[in-house]
Amino acid sequence: MSAEVIDVLVIGGGIHVCGVLQAAAAAGHSCLLLEERGLASCTSSRSSKLIPGGLR
Fold first, then answer.
1. Which residues of 10-44 are buried (b: 16+ CB within 10 A; e: fewer)?
2. pTM of the prediction?
3. Domain boundaries, the chain
């Protein structure tokens, strides 16, 4: 059995985490996201208003 090296491990798939994970993957890091439910199923459904113009 061979082990695979993962550079970035994230637990929880909210909107902010997905953005960070996308940036890490774009920079060439291997990433793994663990999510109990579906992506953006809880807190990401609420507006954080951190993106200019806000999310509705």
1. bebbbbebbeebeeeeeeeeebeeebeeeeeeeeb
2. 0.61
3. 8-37
